[in-house]
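User: I'm putting together notes for a lab meeting next week and I want to include a structural view of one of the chains we've been expressing. I don't have a solved structure, so I'd like a prediction I can at least talk through. The sequence is below, exactly as it appears in our construct file.
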Amino acid sequence: MLPKLIQMIFSAAVFACIFFTSAQAENYHIVSIQHQRFPPYELSLKGFKQGVSQSALADRITLEEYNADSDITALDMFINKIENRDDVDLIFSIGTQSTQRIIKEIKTTPIVFTDLGAPETSGIITDWKGSGANFTGVETQDYIGIGIHLLHELMAFKSIGLIYLKGSPSHEGTVKQITELSQDQKFEFHTRGFALRDENNKTFPRKVIRENMQSALDEIAPKVDVFYVQISNTFDQNFDLFFECFKKHSLPSAGAPIYIKKGIVIGIGRNKEKFGYQSAEYAIKILQGADPGKMPMDTGKEFSISLNIEAATIVGYNPSIDILGAADEIYRKIGAIDE
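Assistant: Thanks for the context. Below is the predicted structure for the 339-residue chain, given as structure tokens.
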């Protein structure tokens, strides 16, 4: 009687152990990481959350969100902590700064990224068919080139200009891409960069940043037919300088769609919320056993064109029929979308 009782207790213990281990394996912990608060990043995170919530694993996933609030030292410290944690099943990285650092430091935990400023020149993507490592992502191959080429076809400009942040891998990558494209397409390209930090890596006061930005704008704007505004939190926060410059020089502008309500004429870019959703689909596949190193990264196909009629009127630009026909969205007021 006693041996049978012991056997029953042992069997129950083994079953409980197996059940507990199985239950533990079915729960997943994802950490999203971004280096700053920025509207496009928030759209990507929103899409990612939606994708996770609508997945088959929704009730088994917990999402931990981290934002470094532009403190790169804090970002690096957090990544180092993540590297030593054993409770993280996957990392969702948003933006170039975060992704560069994460894939350099973390070599085993799966990583899914999106929102790279210049995918080809950031050093992150070397083969669009797959990384061969522990990461993959949702991006658009040569999206800067696609956007500028499309803009050139629509506006037939002879010269284009932009200003950029020195030291930014995405901004410097964009400059390189447009330089190459200008040589191929035979248009002039004028640009000037400025730094956000001093030689000791200390951020300049906002007044100094605005003065440097204004100086760069004043140099480039008179030389070009159209101005391209790169995506940047700094530019977003100081967009009034761009807008006043465009009015002063009667200069049509183009750039990331986030600026269309602020007053650029043409918005050309990617659907960040859709990219976030696609990133979640990738994350689910990886958690279910897919190899991130074999997953293609040129899967971001949602490209859009928007037009702001009021912004065009203010700078004296008359959109062609081709531009009106190509626009996916038309805004008739600065600061409001035409429903």
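A couple of points you could mention at the meeting. The first strand starts at residue 28 and ends at 34. The radius of gyration is 24 Å.

User: Perfect, that's what I needed.
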